[in-house]
TrEMBL record, chain A:
This is Cysteine desulfurase. Pfam families: Aminotran_5 (PF00266). It comes from the Bacteria. Its cofactor is pyridoxal 5'-phosphate. GO terms for molecular function: cysteine desulfurase activity; iron-sulfur cluster binding; metal ion binding. It comes from Candidatus Fermentithermobacillus carboniphilus. Keywords: Iron, Iron-sulfur, Metal-binding, Pyridoxal phosphate.
UniProtKB/TrEMBL annotation, chain B:
GO terms for cellular component: L-cysteine desulfurase complex. Its cofactor is pyridoxal 5'-phosphate. Homodimer. Forms a heterotetramer with IscU, interacts with other sulfur acceptors. It comes from Candidatus Fermentithermobacillus carboniphilus. Residues 13-375 form the Aminotransferase class V domain. Its EC number is 2.8.1.7. This is Cysteine desulfurase IscS.
């Protein structure tokens, strides 16, 4: 498959032989590692193979690499480097935020507040906890996917251990009012519950300030921002008591055992540095592309229904539409045939033929949930790729139309 | 031998392969495409996803082959520590209704010991079996420790500090006879000595990538078909629902390739390493008075040398060796920053002061006979000098 030399990637361009180029519009599932990321990792993989816990010079070189990456991660969220704990990814960070909190708080804190649109790594965990006797409140969202901060505040009780709200909804891109929620929770004083933010889909790109926003725990992932898979981090506010999720040799200040994934961590650091330089500029460009994509889709299919906010408080790289009457999966395959790669929802659940619980939580019908397509862009997405996507969508829907008519 | 054989560290001799190993060029080459064009999420339905999925499944076959398992019995994790945690916590909670007793040993890796301690706080009872002076666990002791409440036995295969190979085949047989689940941490032995999970009657086996020239951040847990686990990371339905999280595709591909190469080269390489190991052990015991081999003399990992050198601090030897270009360790890397003597040596009955003078040198692919001879040339003068400076040394002289 070497014809796809440049898909959604920095070294783009038409493929050899004049074939149509492939357009990767599934960047919320995973992104292509940036050249500077690959370079940083390759250097570590080839030269700096030491175990950071070793006392000899290879060990100290590796621990320096880890420390530099920690600084780069911290600087993107307004944290101190000592507050960053590396994990194997966003799912581990989310699991740990919840289990670690419950393990450190004792028996009187048995209530968890979260929303109806969280990622499966939060949902599955709170469902497991509910089965184990914990009490869970799921705060509903409005038609655009917004959680109401007042409702969150009202759900808090004396026995609430944790409030966990995501920053960016991974399917529809809604940016939740985490800043406001943090402010309201802070007003409860020292006995307030902990505030965890799953920032996997916003980290690196959106403005985050853990101190100003009153956040205690924040989950991050590298592979959504052109870093490597297999590495992420949890911000743990200084002074917060946390039980470990993984026990062992006591790495990461005793909070996360296991030999550090040094190349992965170096890659995450490089990705953070890259975003730190041009975040605002990239987001501005993406906002323009998002508007173009939305207009293009509506032009291609006027009955298409946009999910999530139109323009304000939305991640400028996620566009989510339903095409009532069609099956999302059929559109996906028709687009793939034309070299455009999208998803029907989140990658984690894309093999299930069930309607997305996120779309249902917006108050939409099952029909709309089953006909959904998520387009997700990256810093490397071009205007031309957006145009190709719209064109491919037009053709795909035209091809599927007879099937749609016959089904009705 | 002259005491003034100090050299500038132009040589770089890495003797800490039990801490971690360099990534082999073949492994890196296998990984690189998955950082580039083949960057897909293995759960995506489109071709990027399918391509990543295929790569993960191919790697799973290679890992399975190394330990003679079925690929469907392999779960990828972020490394050995996570695998140990998943095995112990996963089984303990899945079989809680059957009993609450766990048998392990005092010389396990901290990933097992600290997980067991956390389980004790949650109401489980754990027996920590002693070992003999060679670091060997007696299967008879295991048998005596079994009660009707025993749900899990966890005994490591190759001891990470002293290199003793535990009789896990016999322990596995016992566990099977009693219907108890048996887990073994094989992080140090996989790829170094042959492993057959069926012949050894192991139900769960921990393997790590970065100890066998694969990348850090990836490992696996073998889970025998029919063994239940409560997942420790919940979320998407990755790894048959036992371990959520987007698969670390390049890492997994590298791990698979490392396993394939390890399996292919194992017979030759273990012979070669054993010979180097014995040369180093013999040399140290011959040239350095009051030095003792830790661990079993024959039932031993082919790459492990662990000696105690009396009247010297292990840390001082390490720093001096490092100045001469030799990277070694005083015990396991995870605890090498701490000043506590090794829990393994203490469990073997090695006195505190002798445990403090321990030196672990673990061999690997890059090491040659010339490396061994270099160490044998520089180590004795280091020891001599340190003994002259130390209070222990003076005590020793006045005694002799």
């Amino acid at each position: 498959m070497n014809e796809r030399a440049g898909t959604g990637a920095p070294h783009g361009g038409l493929a050899a032989g004049g074939e149509d180029r492939l357009v990767y519009m599934d960047n919320s599932s995973t992104t292509r590692p940036a050249p500077e990321v690959v370079e940083a990792m390759r250097k570590v993989l080839e030269e700096d193979f030491g175990n950071p816990s070793s006392l000899h010079r290879l060990g100290t070189a590796s621990s320096r690499i880890v420390r530099n990456a920690r600084k780069s991660v911290a600087s993107l969220i307004g944290a101190d480097e000592t507050e960053i704990v590396f994990t194997s990814g966003g799912t581990e960070a989310n699991n740990w935020a919840i289990f670690g909190t419950l393990r450190s708080l004792g028996d009187r804190s048995t209530h968890i507040v979260t929303s109806t649109v969280e990622h499966p790594s939060i949902m599955a965990t709170v469902e497991y906890l509910r089965d184990s006797g914990y009490d869970v409140t799921l705060v509903p969202v409005d038609g655009e996917g917004f959680v109401d901060p007042e409702k969150v505040l009202k759900s808090v009780r004396k026995d609430t251990a944790l409030v966990s709200i995501m920053l960016v909804q991974n399917e529809i891109g809604t940016v939740e009012p985490c800043r406001e929620i943090g402010r309201l929770l802070s007003s409860l004083g020292p006995r307030r519950p902990r505030f965890h933010v799953d920032a996997v889909q916003g980290f690196g790109r959106l403005d985050i300030d853990v101190k100003k926003w009153g956040i205690d725990l924040l989950s991050m992932s590298a592979h959504k921002i052109h870093g490597p898979k297999g590495v992420g981090a949890l911000y743990v506010r200084r002074g917060l008591r946390m039980g470990p999720l993984i026990f062992g040799g006591g790495q990461e200040a005793g909070l996360r055992s296991g030999t550090e994934n040094v190349p992965g961590i170096a890659g995450m650091g490089a990705a953070c540095e890259m975003w730190g330089k041009d975040r605002v500029e990239v987001l501005g460009r993406l906002a323009v592309l998002r508007k173009k994509l939305i207009e293009g889709v509506r032009e291609a299919w006027p009955e298409a229904v946009l999910h999530g906010p139109e323009s304000a408080n939305v991640a400028p790289y996620i566009v989510h539409f339903s095409f009532p009457g069609f099956r999302g999966e059929s559109i996906l395959h028709a687009l793939e045939k034309r070299g455009v790669f999208v998803s029907t929802g989140s990658a984690c659940s894309s093999h299930k033929a069930k309607p997305s619980p996120i779309i249902l939580a917006l108050g939409r019908s099952e029909e709309e949930a089953l006909s959904a397509i998520r387009f997700s862009m990256s810093r490397y997405t071009t205007e031309e790729e957006v145009a190709i996507t719209v064109e491919a969508l037009k053709e795909s829907l035209k091809e599927l139309l007879p099937w749609r008519e016959s089904r009705r | 031998m002259s005491t003034e054989t100090r050299k500038t560290p132009e040589r770089h001799i890495y003797l800490d392969h039990s801490a971690t190993t360099p990534v082999r060029p073949e492994v890196l080459a296998a990984m690189l495409p998955y950082f580039g064009d083949k960057f897909g999420n293995a759960s995506s339905v489109h071709r990027w996803g399918r391509e990543a999925r295929m790569a993960v499944e191919e790697a799973r076959e290679k890992v399975a082959s190394l330990i003679k398992a079925d690929p469907r019995e392999i779960i990828f994790t972020s490394g050995g520590t996570e695998s140990d945690n998943l095995a112990l916590r996963g089984v303990a909670w899945a079989y809680r209704s059957r009993g609450n007793h766990i048998i392990t040993s005092a010389i396990e890796h901290h990933a097992v010991l600290h997980t067991c301690e956390s389980l004790e706080k949650e109401g489980f009872r754990v027996t920590y079996l002693p070992c003999d002076r060679y670091g060997m666990i007696d299967p008879e002791e295991v048998k005596r420790a079994i009660t009707k409440d025993t749900i899990l036995i966890s005994i490591m295969h190759g001891q990470n500090e002293v290199g003793t190979i535990e009789p896990i085949g016999e322990i596995g047989k016992l566990a099977k006879e009693h219907g108890i689940i048996f887990h073994s941490d094989a992080v140090q032995s996989a790829g170094k000595v042959p492993i057959d999970v069926n012949a050894m009657n192991v139900d769960l086996l921990t393997v790590s990538s970065h100890k066998i020239y694969g990348p850090k951040g990836v490992g696996a847990l073998y889970v025998r078909k029919g063994t239940r686990l409560v997942p420790q990371a919940t979320g998407g339905a990755h790894e048959r629902g036992m371990r959520a999280g987007t698969e670390n595709v390049p890492g997994i591909v590298g791990f698979g390739e490392a396993c394939r190469l390890a399996e292919k080269e194992l017979p030759e390489e273990s012979k070669r390493l054993s010979a180097l190991r014995d040369r180093l052990i013999r040399g140290i015991l011959d040239k350095i008075p009051d030095s003792i081999l830790n661990g079993h003399p024959t039932e031993r990992l082919p790459h492990n040398v662990n000696v105690s050198i009396k009247y010297v601090e292990g840390e001082s030897m390490l720093l001096n060796l490092d100045l001469l270009g030799v990277g070694a360790s005083s015990g396991s890397a995870c605890t090498s920053g701490s000043l506590e003597p090794s829990h393994v040596l203490l469990a073997m009955g090695v006195p505190h002061e002798v445990a403090h003078g321990s030196l672990r040198m673990t061999l690997g692919k890059s090491n040659t006979e010339a490396d061994i001879d270099y160490v044998l040339e520089v180590l004795p003068p280091i020891v001599e000098r340190l003994r002259e400076m130390s209070v222990f040394g003076r005590g020793q002289k006045s005694k002799s």
